[in-house]
Structures are given as C-alpha cells and as structure tokens.
C-alpha cells in the first residue's frame, strides 16, 4: 500500500477558498497512492482561534465537496484532515473527514481531546466522544487528531477495535516538535501499528508549525520523515501484513493486564483512621 502525507502550507494571507482548491488539486494528483492524509484544520489554521466561528461549515459544506471530488479523481482513500464543523445545534467541533476512492464519505471523527486548557480550542469547541475506525482494505485505520497523540488510552481503544494503522493529522507547533516525533513513535511501538502523522507547514496566527510529518512502522522505525516545516508530500510503502506479523512474533499486546485495583493509600503515621 502506498501512502502520501501532504504537509500543506497554511498562510493567513491565503484565502480559504484558494487553499481549499489548492489542496484538492494536490490530492487529485496522488493517483499513484492508495491512501492520502492531510493535516488538522488546514482550511483555517489550528491556532487561528479568532477565525473558528467565521470559518465553521457543516459536514456537507465546501470542504466536503472539494475533498469528495478530489478523492474520486485520484481514486484514493483520503483522510482529508479536519475542519471546524458547525453542528445543527450550533456547536463547533474539530472534525476529521475520510473518503473512500469512490468519493463517498466513509467516516467522521470529532476530536476527543481539545487543546488549550482554558483557552482556544478547549473552550471554543465541543469534544467528541466516539472512537472511530475506517475499514481501509487490509489496513484498518484508527483516527486521532493532534493533541490526542498524548493520550495512549485512545490508541489502545482503537487497537482493540481492530486498527492496524493510525492517521494523526495535526497542527503541532514548532515549540514542541520533539514531543511530536517521540509520541508518534511511541504510539506505533506500544500498539504495533503504523502511524501516519501529518503536520502543517507555515504558521497559524503567528504560531510557527513543526511540520516534520512522519510515517512510522509497527516496529517503531521511521519510514519517511519531513526535515522541517516546508510544504511537501511525504511518501512511503506500507506492508499491510507488517502489523499482524509483528503481533504474532512479538505478542506483547497479549500480556496487557486490565482492570487492576487502584493502589491502597496507607494512613499517615500518627493519624487515626
């Protein structure tokens, strides 16, 4: 299976409609790939909080239309990154869209872990509450987004749901680029699954992006990696049998111990129970 990660540049000066058309053209050009992944919130920028409200669109909005047509034109499975989705009740979500080679929408994932603590995405957007996998032939794909990468239990859940690979679109900042690489490899190693981690180039609202998209094997080997934050297309060949073979030969996942009791808390010396 041939995978392409499009590390698209997000520039505040570029109109969203122009970037949408440019992204669609880049996707449509990937006819020699089987799976294509775009970054998180590339239409608006992951840190462009002030634009979330104005840039929000419904699931069937202009980004959906452009990406569905691009997936069909290239004949690829397309993880179209994420958009600011406006739900029918007005709530905003950081929502990933995945398309089959026919152009039919195959999955929707609303980001579970919102970044920002007490500002930005964490207060402007609602949280998703469902794990999502996509039945990509021979390589079931688990979906996660950016900050989700810091929460290994999400990836365990996707593994239990049958995922052999994870697509992780992101708008990861340059300031924490080392975390990005380490966490992507850790999620691959601990779950014995491919990780396709696609970041953005450029800067969102004056926040320089890490770029450094990478494709990691189930054994933790970096198969392809962007050297920095320039716009580029990263490619690698994936062996759909690699994850299952590794899990058979080194069955660490079978040694998981679940449901352990919480540690006992000893009473402080000299204090009554």
From TrEMBL:
PROSITE patterns: CN_HYDROLASE, UPF0012. It comes from the Bacteria. Residues 1-240 form the CN hydrolase domain. Keywords: Hydrolase. Belongs to the carbon-nitrogen hydrolase superfamily. NIT1/NIT2 family. PANTHER family: DEAMINATED GLUTATHIONE AMIDASE (PTHR23088:SF27), NITRILASE-RELATED (PTHR23088). This is Carbon-nitrogen hydrolase. It comes from Streptomyces solincola.
């Amino acid at each position: 299976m041939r995978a392409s990660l499009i590390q698209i540049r997000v520039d505040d000066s570029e109109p969203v409609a122009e970037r949408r058309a440019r992204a669609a053209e880049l996707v449509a050009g990937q006819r020699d790939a089987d799976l294509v992944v775009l970054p998180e919130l590339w239409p608006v920028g992951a840190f462009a909080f002030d634009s979330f409200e104005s840039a929000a669109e419904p699931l069937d909005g202009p980004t959906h239309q452009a990406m569905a047509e691009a997936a069909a034109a290239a004949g690829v499975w397309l993880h179209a990154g994420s958009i600011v989705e406006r739900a029918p009740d007005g709530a905003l979500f950081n929502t990933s869209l995945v398309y089959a080679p026919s152009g039919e929408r195959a999955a929707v994932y609303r980001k579970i872990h919102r970044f920002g603590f007490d500002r930005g995405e964490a207060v402007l957007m609602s949280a998703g509450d469902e794990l999502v996998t996509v039945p990509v032939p021979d390589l079931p794909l688990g979906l996660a987004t950016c900050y989700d990468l810091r929460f290994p239990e999400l990836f365990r859940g996707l593994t239990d749901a049958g995922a052999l690979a994870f697509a992780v679109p992101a708008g990861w900042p340059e300031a924490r680029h080392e975390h990005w690489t380490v966490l992507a490899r850790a999620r691959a190693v601990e779950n014995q699954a491919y990780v396709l981690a696609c970041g953005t180039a450029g800067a969102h609202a004056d926040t320089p992006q890490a770029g450094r998209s990478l494709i990691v094997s189930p054994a933790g080997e970096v198969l392809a990696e962007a050297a920095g934050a320039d716009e580029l297309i990263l490619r690698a060949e994936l062996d759909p049998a690699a994850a299952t073979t590794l899990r058979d030969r080194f069955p660490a996942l079978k040694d998981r111990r679940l449901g352990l009791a919480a540690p006992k808390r000893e009473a402080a010396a000299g204090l009554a129970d």
